[in-house]
Specification:
This protein is of the alpha/beta class. It has helices at about 1-10, 15-30, 45-60, 65-70, 90-100, 115-125, 135-150, 190, 195-200, 205-220, 235-245; strands at about 70-75, 75-80, 105-110, 130-135, 155, 170-175, 220-230, 250-255, 260-265. It folds into two domains: about 1-60, no CATH class; about 70-265, Rossmann fold. It is built from eleven helices and nine strands. Helix 6 (about 115-125) links the parallel strand 3 (about 105-110) and strand 4 (about 130-135). It holds the Pfam family MTS.
Length: about 270
């Protein structure tokens, strides 16, 4: 099953076909991907039908996480749907950077699956957090993820800060940062299947950072921190927006591949 699935995916032009095959076969058999090679028995008709449907979906370039319904992120397994951005390993750079900072309350702008907020709250018991998103469907996924993992978090519909009140020790965000001109070059797995509003601002890719920078003074506690994920070419531009908003101690952090990935700044005490 693994060999056949990998071969069919490779013939269909799917990158990393062997890895995807393992996840799809595991999905069909109802086991963990790492346990596929240990599985013994005869696949049932239902299992084979599930696998066939999964292969067809992947050949149509639907992301594996949407087919299986989950993605492992940080220390947790999160539900993923077409209404949410697929949490990616590089976003864990933002989580790691945020956990190095002192804070007791956190606001996650554009929470999506809730991946960032849930990871932060789970690693720091006793703190509070609010996740906001413009998509009601995404908020439903985030609430379900938090409940499934036993993480207490608040969620609300908001266009960035529009429905947010109060101040927070930490504000985090992984906003849409892909420029409209870059969208056609994206892999179809991303461009055609993930929510467009979570990918691009339909402009230069910096609109979300401008909105966040404009509202941060009213919602960041004295001495609080702002940390955002960026595209690998946006470090200098986002750092300038942070500085213009009055933030100090600005730093650009790389991801594990050495690409600029996170910008951090602190408000005046």
């Amino acid at each position: 099953m693994l060999r056949d699935t990998a071969a069919r995916l490779a013939q269909g032009g799917i990158p990393d076909a062997a890895s995807d095959a393992r996840r799809l076969v595991a999905h069909a058999l109802g086991v963990e991907p790492g346990a596929v090679s240990l599985w013994q028995g005869m696949a049932s008709a239902d299992q084979l039908a599930t696998l066939e449907a999964a292969i067809a979906a992947r050949l149509a370039r639907q992301p594996v996480s949407q087919i299986t319904g989950w993605r492992d992120f940080w220390k947790h397994r999160l539900r993923v749907t077409r209404d949410t951005l697929d949490p990616r390993p590089e976003t864990e750079t933002l989580v790691a950077a945020a956990l190095e900072l002192p804070w007791r309350s956190v606001l996650d702008l554009g929470t999506g699956t809730g991946a960032i907020l849930i990871s932060l709250l789970a690693d720091r018991p006793g703190v509070t957090g609010l996740g906001v998103d413009l998509s009601d469907a995404a908020l439903a996924v985030a609430r379900r993820n938090a409940a499934a993992l036993g993480v207490r978090a608040e969620f609300a519909r908001s266009d960035w800060f529009s429905a947010v009140t109060g101040r927070f020790d930490l504000i985090v965000s992984n906003p849409p940062y892909i420029g409209a001109a870059e969208m056609p070059a994206l892999a179809p797995d991303v461009r055609d299947w993930e929510p467009r509003m979570a990918l691009t601002d339909e402009g230069d890719g910096l609109a979300a950072y401008r909105a966040i920078a404009a509202g941060v003074a009213a919602h960041l506690a004295p001495g609080g921190w702002l940390a955002v994920e960026i595209g690998p070419t946006q470090g200098a531009a986002v750092a300038e927006l942070f500085a213009a908003a009055g933030l100090g101690r600005i730093a650009v952090r790389p991801d594990l591949d050495g690409r600029d990935r996170v910008v951090i700044g602190q408000s005046a005490a």
